[in-house]
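ZP: hey, is the flavin mononucleotide complex queued? I don't see it on the tracker
AM: it wasn't, my bad. submitting now with these inputs:
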Amino acid sequence: MPCAGRCDDYIPILKGAQVLIGLAADNLQPKLSPLPVLNPGGIEECVLAEIRKPNRSNILGYRQTGGYDSLIRMLDLMRPSDVVQTVKDSQLTGRGGAGFPTGLKWETVGKESRQPKTVVCNADEGEPGCFKDRAILDHDPHVVIEGMLIAGYAAGATQGFIYLRYEYPETFGILSQAVDEAEEAGFLGDGILGSDFSFQIYIRRGAGAYICGEESSLLNSLEGKRPFPRNRPPYPVTHGYQDLPTIVNNVETLASVPPILRYGAGWYRGLGLNGHAGTKVISLSGDIQRPGNYEVPIGFSLSTLLYDWAGGPEIGRSIQAVTMAGISGGFLAGADLDITLDDPCIKAKGSYLGSGGIIVFDDRRNMVEVAESAMSFFAEESCGKCFPCRIGTQRLSERLSGQAPVQAAAEWRKEVEDISQTMRATSACGLGTAASLITESLVRYFSDQVDRHLSSIVPPDK
Ligand SMILES: Cc1cc2nc3c(=O)[nH]c(=O)nc-3n(C[C@H](O)[C@H](O)[C@H](O)COP(=O)(O)O)c2cc1C
C-alpha cells in the first residue's frame, strides 16, 4: 500500500531518506535496507554486533556466528523461570516505544495458566523516521526468531506471529525463508531439538496503517478486526490474542535477548553509561551528513552522536531542532539538545526516547511547516475511534497550515494550547497524546516562528 498522506513532504521523506528506505530516486522499486555502518566510536554493541558478518541472514551464516547457541543452551540448562530472571536482571526494557520492563512482561504471561499463549513480534514500524527494525529483519532475521523462541519458552507460549509492516515486501520474503530454514533445522515445530518445547511462527503482513503498531490495535488486526485500540485494562499479558495471555514485543527488544542469554545479564547492563542498562538502536535521518542506524549505549551524548558519529549538518549550517521517538516525542531544540540518550534525561525536557527515531532539522527549516507536516501525518493516521485524537489532529493541522479562520494571535495560541492539552489528557492511545507534543514543543521552542506564521494569517488590524 502506498504511504498515506504526502510522501514528498518533510516528515515522510527528508534528505537521505531515499537511500535509507531503499528507494533510488530514479527507480521507485524498494530494495534491501542498507547494512548499519560500524559505529565510529568503537563502542561495544549488542543488537548490531553480528549483523555485518557475511551470510548472517541465512541459517548457515547465523549458526557460524553463534546463532541458536543461546536457544540450545537454554533448552539444555535453564528452566523458564531462569530465563525470566536473566531478562529481568538485564534490565532490558521494550524498544518499541513504551519502555516496559521485558522480563516483567514475560513473567506475567508465564504466570497465566490459560492456553494457548502467544508471542507477537511487533514489526509494524510505522513511525516516521524509524527504520531500525527493517534493517534488523533484512540482515539478521534469525536473531528475531531465536528471541521469539526464548520468549515463548520463558512464558510457556506455543505460537508466535511476526506482524510485519505491509510496506516491507522484501522483508516478508527474507522472513519467510528464515522461518522455513529454522523449521527444517528443527529449531521450530514440535519437540524442538528433542525437548518437550514446541513452538510455531506465522508471518502476517500488517494492514498498512500506523495505528496497527499500537499493540492492542495490532491484536485486533491479527484477529481480522478493525484495528481500533482496545480499552485497557485488561492488558495483552492476560487478555491478548484471542483474549488469551500474549507477549507483544518489538523487533529490537527480541533481538536483544539471544546476546543477553549468551553473555549474561551483567554484560548487557554494563553496556549502558552512567548507571543506565543496555543499548538502543537510533535511526538518524534528516539534515545530517551521515544518516543511518547507530547503536548507542543508553546514556550516550546526543551531540556526540550527531556531530562526531554522524558528521553534523552540512558545512555552514547549524542544527535547529531534532525530533525524538520518530516524531512522537515532538521537538527538542536550543539548550535542550545538550542531553544524554536515556529516558530520565529526555523526559525532564518533556519528550521521550521511544522507538529511537531522530530527525534532524537545520537552520533553513521552517519549523511551523515541519510541525504541520507531522500533524497532517497524525491526522491522516488517526484511527477515529476517540474524538480528541480524530478531531484534535484535524483542528491542529488547520491551525498550523493557516486554513482555520483566526481573529487574533492570542486566540490562536489559546486554541492550540487547549486542543493539545485535551488530546494529551483524554486520547485513547499514544497516537493522540504524542501528536500534542508536536504543537506543545513547537510553541515552546519556536515562538518567533509561530509569530511570523501568525502575522501572515491574522488580519492586520487585530
Ligand atoms: C500509535 C502507536 C504506534 C506504535 N507503533 C509501534 C510499532 O510500529 N512497533 C512497535 O514495536 N511498537 C509500536 N508501538 C508501541 C506498542 O504499542 C507496544 O508498546 C510495543 O510493541 C511493546 O513492545 P516492547 O515492550 O518490546 O517495546 C506503537 C504505539 C502507538 C501508540
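AM: back. The pocket of flavin mononucleotide is lined by residues 94-98, 100, 122, 124-127, 210-211, 213-215, 248-250, 253, 429-431 (CB under 6 Å).
ZP: great, adding it to the tracker
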